[in-house]
Amino acid sequence: MKDIDDELLTRGIVNVYPSKEYVAARLARGEKLTIYLGIDPTGPTLHLGHSIPLKKLGDFQKAGHKIILLMGDFTAMIGDPDKATARAPLTRKQILLNLKNYKSQASKILSFTGKNPAKIMFNSKWLGKMNFEDVLNLASQMTVQQMLKRDMFDRRIKEGKLIFIHEFMYPLMQGYDSVAMDVDGEIGGNDQTFNMLVGRDLMKTLKNKEKFVLTVKLLEDSEGNKMGKTEGNMVALSDTPEEMYGKVMSWNDGLIIPGFELCTNVSMQELEIIARELVDGSMNPRDLKMKLAYELTSLYHDKEKAKKAENHFIEAFQNREIPKDVLEITVEKNTLLIDVLVKNNLVSSKTEFRRLVEDHAIMHLDTNEKVSNTQIITVSGVYRIGKKRFCKIIIK
Q: Do the bridges between strand 362-364 and strand 327-331 make them parallel or antiparallel, or are there none, so unpaired?
């Protein structure tokens, strides 16, 4: 049990507030703690960045503690002010649409059934019912000086950029979630430290109760480069096995060790071996990355599908072969290629098609020719779209 508790408080952890010793003492006493993770549904799918605190939350669930997955359906309307400018507000309809599949995706990590099921809550339940007097009372619990300690706010002031009053309210709202649910602890990414500590302060002031905070590492390499939407290598929990495997293989080598530590279930002993092999060159980084891609894909799908995804990658990329199960599409001669690819979901939109064309990333493999924005289909053959998508177009 001591080894389990040690790993709970060390693997993937950046900081523990008020201290690791405080939380360890509560665990040693056998207390059943209530711990939560809050996620704002600002996008339609959970991704590996979410999986890191979700996995830590799941570890506490397996250890018998009560866990809550909080959907920030109210806070998402403002959005955490973690960017250089204020976020565009989301409508209630957009938010509900975004979170539609969150539970099913999170169920790949958390258990929502059985003797100790994870509980889902929505912060609109309390934040949506506050009147202006309630908001003023809450706002009186923090000073402007405290709020300006957040590095993002400080940076905007130095750069002469605007800070809106409603952005100041976000940390207070997230902090009040802890009070409303009366939790013992909170887990979140290291970039959420300020907001989670606001909740810790509010718990002391309004509940006279200590709340511990566990901040987990972000998925980034040694130079601070993240896996994410901007980089185009974000792994969504809704991705197919082939997409998931292929995206991991596109990561730079600096993400191999963080990927194993934060996103897989390999033991710390095995992780040490992998790190040693990477440093001393006894293993090719490509082979370690393939192991990582397999482990991740197995976790969110299964071993059989992960193996098929691996074989697909080897055929399509390592051997430069066309996959055996390539999608076949029958069309009329002189059909626009853009229409065919959009209709069959090989590109998400005409905008993506044009971007890929500009990057010379769509090719007719039989003729070895790159295509144009107005490409019409005059001969049958196989097309490669980007690095991971193929289709065989057959003219009637």
A: unpaired
Which CATH class, in words, describes the domain spanning 241-318?
Answer: mainly alpha
CATH number of the domain at 327-395, please? 3.10.290.10
The pLDDT of residue 318 is above 70: no
Q: Residue 152, class by beta-carbon neighbours within 10 Å (0-12 exposed, 13-18 middle, 19+ buried)?
A: middle
If you ran DSSP here, which 8-state letter would residue 321 be given? P
- The dihedrals phi and psi of 367, each to the nearest 5 degrees, come to -105, -10
CA 374, chain centre distance (Å): 36
Taking the C-alpha atoms of residue 356 and residue 347, their distance in angstroms, rounded to an integer, is 9
At 267-316, the pLDDT tens digits run 999 999 999 988 888 888 888 999 999 999 999 999 999 999 999 888 77
> Is the CA virtual torsion 167, 169, 173, 176 positive or negative?
positive
> Token digits for 331?
């069309």
Strand order in the sheet with 212-216: 13-17, 212-216, 185-189, 34-39, 66-71, 119-122
pLDDT of 83 reads 63
Q: What does the alpha-carbon distance between residue 129 and residue 323 come to, in Å, rounded to a whole number?
A: 55
What is the DSSP annotation of 27-75? HHTT---EEEEEE---SSS-BHHHHHHHHHHHHHHHTT-EEEEEE-TTG
Domain at 2-216, CATH from 3.40.309.10, 3.40.50.620, 3.40.190.10, 3.40.50.10490:
3.40.50.620
- Residues 276 and 235: beta-carbon distance below 8 Å: no
- Two structure tokens written together for 215: 């901040």
pTM exceeds 0.70 for this model: yes
1 pLDDT tier (thresholds 50, 70, 90): very low
> What is the number of alpha carbons within 13 Å of residue 306 lying toward its C-beta?
15
Cα separation, 362 vs 370, whole angstroms: 6
Q: How far is CA 377 from the centre of its chain?
A: 38
